[in-house]
Write a structure and sequence with these properties.
The complex is a heterodimer of chains A (325) and B (441). Chain A contains 10 helices and 9 strands. By secondary structure, chain A is α/β, with parallel strands linked by helices. Chain A has 3 domains: 1-32, no CATH class; 43-186, 3-Layer(aba) Sandwich (Rossmann fold); 194-314, no CATH class. Chain A has a 5-stranded parallel beta sheet, with helices on both faces. Chain A has a two-stranded antiparallel ribbon with strand order 1-2. In chain B, β1 (2-7) and β2 form a beta hairpin. β1 of chain A pairs antiparallel with β1 (2-7) of chain B.
């Protein structure tokens, strides 16, 4: 029988109030990956993937970027590897938000063993869709009803990872594209971050097609090739970071801002960003300002837009555009 | 009394198993889900039409199923029937999800258990067959990539798709794009079969080594696919959940909206996920339920594997490690069925019908890779007043815990705890391929 199939922690707690931690004889894999002499000569960069509270979509995207498989050594990623401790690595990719005490602890421990920390995806960067639960009226009910014994406690709010550790690089997107993963892993100096979604969308902006009200989220028939704003949709692609190839807007789905602010807005406060959106709508539509304001300021109506205010949160220095892919 | 805690890996999300033993007696075996984000709470107040964009974020592995279930729930609430071509394109979406999920579960999550490895991405301790591992990993990624590319084609994005909309889908598929993807699937199919044949042999070897296929006591099974053949169109006029009794006789069917009258839901204090039972009895969903409850698949390769499976294990088959083989058969089916669909014209007619919003209740039902997924929304003033997500993984939670007790009894004696228990715990949980992000949401 081979004993290398598992290297997990086999923890036995006795009721006599002491515990012992046994490691089976097979627990050597985590060690074996630290000696990395590669036959081709150079060293292979080791990287680990720490998943906090999220959806694993970022991990799935990484698996799709399979090109790393020959060039980098993945040493920790519980989704596909049975290793229970983060080893020392050059790069630590972190996905998901900090939602539980355990997320907080695991993040701190892992970051200590990494040369650089990369925040992967909208949840790690700004809390993501789970931040919709940070509103006071929601979290009071949520925390009261979801609480359980024996499992990691929920923190009062879902936080981005740079509220806990220093971050060297941000990979925006829900999820980031496979290309971004490769650019981050290879530290490609020629990689050019996308500018904004509008530039990649290619739909034409018209001056003479001016809706008077917002069109409901999935309502109406979307006309091809014409800007979604001209059709009344609350599309925010003009100020959202590009690099996604406009995968949503081209088939006719408004941009909901999953990749966060473009370089022009990233270090500015949310008000500037809001006024920019309003200016665009003013030039292309006759939608009353109050209607637009209501939609943009509602955490529900505008979906991912709450993260623009998070980018400019006063308790933390702004995320510099140089660190954003 | 001793408490044994096993962290889990090679499953989606954060969970652990806790087993309490007293001498040779297994006092309890708990499957604990350790994360929650609160989707049920924070979607309250959201405009109902945004649900198809928000709920895929419940899970990046199962996003397609949530996307389609949300659209269906809203169509049910608004009284809209999408055109047939929309159903066909949604079927492609869900087949893409089956391909990517089953390829991941079989070739990346559970293959290492057969080969004595901790991962398909890490070399084992021994010098020797590592080149084989690397080749297997590369091929596994190639097969699952075919599934994600299919989701991208039909859904716009491969992780959080956007193309299913209330009343249909945003667009059809152009002939050239369909032909390109068909070619990719044609190339992936023999690779998938070769990997699966190898996996099948290694599974037999595993059984010979450990002497069991795991918990094989009969249970109820549930699925939302058809009884004559699988149907993943996500649009059937009256989709129903079917129940098989432990003897293998069809026992009842019920519509998704009546689930509370047939399934019992309860919470526990040790997990962020609840669990369902069939009126108190253990039941199972996922691949083995579909294998037991589907007459035939209707595509040649999958039906050959199904015949081989039934010759070897009978019908209904109950042993839990057979879930893993079932996933391989479904992978072959999904590849073959998607190729059939891509041969048809997919841009020849309307893909959506207009709709009017209205308040009320809507229920969506989709057979996700892990079993029947139900979304139930209560809509008031156009906003979500209440949302319930009945997740397939929770249909299996009682079955997982029962199988854990079976494994624990095998490896725990008054004198010692056999270290094989840790591997057995991993195999048991992975056989059910639970998804914790979904189960807790």
């Amino acid at each position: 029988m081979r004993h290398d199939a598992c290297c997990g922690i086999f923890l036995i707690t006795l009721t006599l109030d002491f515990s012992l931690c046994l490691r089976p004889p097979c627990a050597t894999i985590a060690l074996s990956v630290t000696r990395l002499n590669v036959t081709t000569g150079g060293t292979v960069e080791r990287f680990a993937v720490l998943q906090l509270s999220g959806c694993a979509g970022c991990e799935v995207s990484l698996l799709n970027a399979g090109d790393w498989i020959d060039k980098h050594r993945l040493t920790y990623m519980p989704l596909v590897i049975s290793t229970h401790d983060v080893p020392e690595v050059e790069t630590l990719l972190v996905s998901g938000g900090v939602r539980t005490e355990e997320d907080h602890y695991n993040l701190r421990q892992a970051a200590r063993r990494a040369d650089r920390v990369v925040a992967v995806g909208t949840c790690a960067i700004s809390g993501g869709v789970a931040s919709l639960g940070n509103r006071d009226e929601v979290r009071e009910v949520f925390l009261a009803q979801a609480e359980r014994r024996h499992v990691p406690r929920l923190l009062p709010k879902c936080r981005p990872i740079d509220a806990v550790v220093d971050v060297d690089l941000y990979l925006p997107g829900c999820p980031p594209t496979p290309e971004l993963f490769m650019a981050a892993l290879t530290e490609d100096p020629d990689f050019e971050p996308g500018r904004n979604v509008c530039r990649e969308c290619g739909r034409k902006k018209l001056r003479d097609m001016r809706p008077e009200h917002l069109t409901g989220f999935q309502e109406g028939e979307v006309l091809p090739d014409i800007c979604l704003i001209n059709q009344g949709y609350l599309c925010v692609g003009s100020s959202v970071r590009g690099g996604c190839r406009a995968l949503c807007t081209r088939p006719g789905h408004q941009c909901v801002g999953c990749r966060g602010p473009s370089d022009a807005f990233i270090e500015k406060d949310a008000e500037e960003w809001l006024s920019s959106i309003k200016r665009i709508f003013e030039s292309l539509t006759d939608i009353p300002e109050e209607e637009l304001d209501r939609a943009l300021r509602s955490p529900q109506l505008a979906l991912f837009l709450f993260q623009f205010s998070d980018y400019a949160a006063p308790e933390r220095p702004p995320r510099p555009k140089e660190k954003m892919l | 009394m001793a408490t044994l805690t096993f962290p889990l890996s090679r499953i989606e999300g954060h969970a652990r198993v806790v087993i309490e033993v007293h001498g040779s007696e297994i006092v309890s075996a708990r499957f604990e889900a350790m994360e929650i984000r609160g989707f049920r709470y924070f979607v309250q107040g959201v405009p109902a039409e945004q649900m198809p964009t928000i709920v895929p974020r419940i899970c990046g592995v199962c996003s397609t199923a949530h996307h389609v279930a949300a659209v269906e729930a809203l169509e049910d609430a608004y009284g809209v029937t999408p055109p047939p071509l929309a159903g066909t394109i949604r079927e492609l979406l869900l087949l893409g999800q089956i391909i990517q999920n089953q390829a991941t579960s079989v070739f990346l999550f559970t293959m290492p258990d057969r080969l004595g490895l901790s991962s398909m991405f890490l070399p084992g301790d021994e010098a020797g067959p590592d080149r084989d591992r690397a080749v297997l990993a590369t091929r596994a990624l190639q097969v699952r990539r075919a599934g994600t590319d299919l989701i991208s084609l039909a859904g716009g994005q491969f992780i959080h798709p956007i193309k299913a909309i209330i009343g249909g889908v945003t667009s059809g598929i152009e002939p050239q794009a369909a032909a390109d993807l068909r070619e990719q699937l044609t190339n992936a199919l023999p690779i998938a079969c070769e990997l699966f044949d190898y996996y099948w042999d290694q599974s037999i070897a595993l059984r010979d080594r450990i002497g069991t296929w795991g918990d094989d006591a009969p249970t109820h099974y549930i699925t939302a696919t058809g009884d004559r053949c699988p149907n993943y169109d996500g649009i059937s006029p009256t989709p129903v959940i079917r129940v098989l009794d432990p003897d293998g006789a069809a026992c009842e069917t019920f519509p998704a909206r009546a689930f509370r009258d047939h399934l019992t839901f309860e919470e526990t204090d040790y997990s962020y996920a609840g669990r369902t039972s069939y009126q108190g009895a253990v039941m199972r969903a996922n691949s083995l339920a579909r294998i037991n409850m589907t007459e035939q698949f209707g595509t040649p390769g999958a039906d050959r594997y199904l015949e081989r499976f039934r010759d070897a294990f009978g019908r209904p088959a109950h042993a839990i490690l057979l879930f893993d083989l079932g996933r391989g058969i479904e992978l072959v089916y999904a590849l073959e069925r998607a190729m059939e669909i891509l041969d048809q014209p997919l841009d020849h007619e309307d893909t959506a019908v207009p709709f009017n919003t209205q308040d009320g209740e809507g229920c969506g039902l989709v057979e996700a890779p892990r079993g029947p997924l139900i979304h139930r929304y209560q809509i008031q003033d156009g906003l979500i007043d209440d949302a319930e997500f009945i997740i397939p993984t929770i249909h299996n939670n009682l079955a997982i815990e029962r199988a854990l007790r079976v494994a624990a009894r095998r490896y725990v004696t008054a004198e010692r705890i056999d270290m094989e228990l840790e591997r057995a715990v991993g195999r048991v949980v992975r056989a059910f391929d639970p998804c914790i992000a979904c189960a807790t949401h």
